[in-house]
Design brief:
Elements (H helix, E strand, L loop, with lengths): L8 H9 L3 E5 L4 H6 L5 E2 L1 H7 L8 E5 L2
Parallel strand pairs: 1-2, 1-3
Length: 65
């Protein structure tokens, strides 16, 4: 398993913009996620739905406010 770490907002923006990573709102509440929405982000529920089709090497960046 890869180590979990922090990255800068600029690095996250670059990775998501280039398609290298998924940006996921870490809140389990879709309403709260909609209030904290960032461009290109998906909800935790969307991630769960897509999980079976994602490659095991897919980078995922979680955020919360």
């Amino acid at each position: 398993m890869a180590e979990v770490g922090r990255i800068s907002a600029d690095e996250a923006h670059e990775k998501v913009g280039s398609g290298q990573a998924l940006l996921v709102c870490a809140y389990d509440d879709d309403v709260k996620c909609s209030r904290m929405a960032l461009e290109g982000a998906i909800t935790l529920n969307e991630l769960r739905a897509r999980l079976p089709s994602l490659p095991k090497t897919q980078e995922v960046i979680f955020f919360c406010a």
